[in-house]
Write a structure and sequence with these properties.
By secondary structure, the protein is an alpha/beta fold. Helices cover 35% and strands 28% of the residues. The protein folds into two domains: 214 residues, P-loop containing nucleotide triphosphate hydrolases (Rossmann fold), CATH 3.40.50.300; 75 residues, Reverse transcriptase/Diguanylate cyclase domain (Alpha-Beta Plaits, 2-Layer Sandwich). The chain has a six-stranded mixed beta sheet with strand order 6-7-8-4-9-10, sandwiched between helices. Strands 1, 2, 3 and 5 form a four-stranded antiparallel beta sheet that branches. A four-stranded antiparallel beta sheet has the order 12-13-11-14. The mean pLDDT is 90.
């Protein structure tokens, strides 16, 4: 899959604060890319730079494999912070107004979009009386005007009740199946973890790590941790006897992420090689623990 968003060394300063600090992001076509970080980490600042709402101090942005950002941004829809809407008008009337900005849309196209986000039956109800989840879905519908290939959503489930969260999550998954790529910021790890294909972990304006959901699942799964008196000797002995093991050695600590049927065999091999085994235990890392380890509490 080709990358449709790439940044290289992107920086943005507000006064004395470096909100975006040398960020390099890579989003592939078809992804649901989750931008994870605490409030104030730089997630919204990055999104505004991608959309041209602010200008970078330095660094490079490429959209859809091209440096022509004006053309690329025409292929992007967005919902940043609270969705803007006319409270005294219906969902359809709101869509008609906003469609003018995107070049116009037929009544059928507007009704099709409202159907996509589950707002086809709200009729004459005014947007000001919508629930928060309905307002978020209307915001997404407005962002879909112009048939964008990429949707950038800033905290789309923030403040929603469980039913509202499920509505937005289902809408995102359905649109993604139809070919829309997503960049979504959130600090709600469990919810984003249900839909994201890849992640960018943000802390203090920097991308700490980019990781796929499959790699995250592997690293958050069960592992075996071994503490010995000689990490190099222990690693060599294990690799010789079990060449297909996935392991990482840091000092005298070895972490094995492969499935092992009988962990006592590991102990037997290590003792036979002359290594002292001080600890051998099974561990599992939760999603929240994984991220906290990288961004702090």
């Amino acid at each position: 899959m080709d990358s449709i968003v790439e940044t290289d060394g992107l920086c943005k300063r507000y006064g004395n604060k470096l909100a975006v600090d040398n960020m390099s992001v890579h989003i592939k076509r078809g992804d649901i890319y989750g931008l994870i970080g605490k409030n104030g980490a730089g997630k919204t600042s990055l999104m505004k730079l991608l959309l041209g709402l602010t200008s970078p101090d330095s660094g490079r942005i490429s959209l859809f494999g091209c440096d022509n950002l004006r053309a690329g941004r025409r292929r992007i829809g967005s919902l940043i912070e609270a969705p803007a809407m006319f409270k005294n008008e219906t969902a359809f009337e709101n869509m008609k107004r906003f469609s003018i900005i995107s070049g116009g849309a037929s009544n059928k196209e507007i009704l099709d979009i409202l159907n996509l986000v589950g707002l086809e039956k709200v009729g004459s109800k005014k947007a000001g009386s919508f629930s928060l989840g309905m307002k978020q879905r209307l915001g997404i519908a407005i962002a879909l005007l112009g048939n964008p290939e990429l949707l950038i959503l800033d905290e789309p489930i923030n403040g929603l009740d469980p039913a509202g969260i499920k509505e937005i999550r289902d809408t995102i998954v359905d649109l993604n199946k139809r070919g829309v790529t997503f960049l979504i910021s959130s600090h709600l790890l469990d919810e984003l973890g249900k839909i994201a294909v890849s992640y960018g972990i943000v802390n203090n304006g920097r991308i700490v790590e980019e990781i796929t959901s499959k790699e995250l699942e592997r690293r958050c799964g069960k592992s075996i941790v071994i503490i010995t008196d000689d990490g190099a000797l222990a690693e060599a002995a294990l690799q010789k006897t079990f060449p297909h093991l996935n392991m990482e050695t840091v000092g005298n600590k070895i972490t094995i992420t492969s499935e092992v049927e009988d962990s006592s065999e590991l102990n037997r091999v290590l003792i036979g090689a002359g290594a002292r085994v001080y600890e051998l235990k099974k561990e599992s890392v939760g999603l929240e623990d994984f991220f906290i380890e990288r961004i702090g509490k």
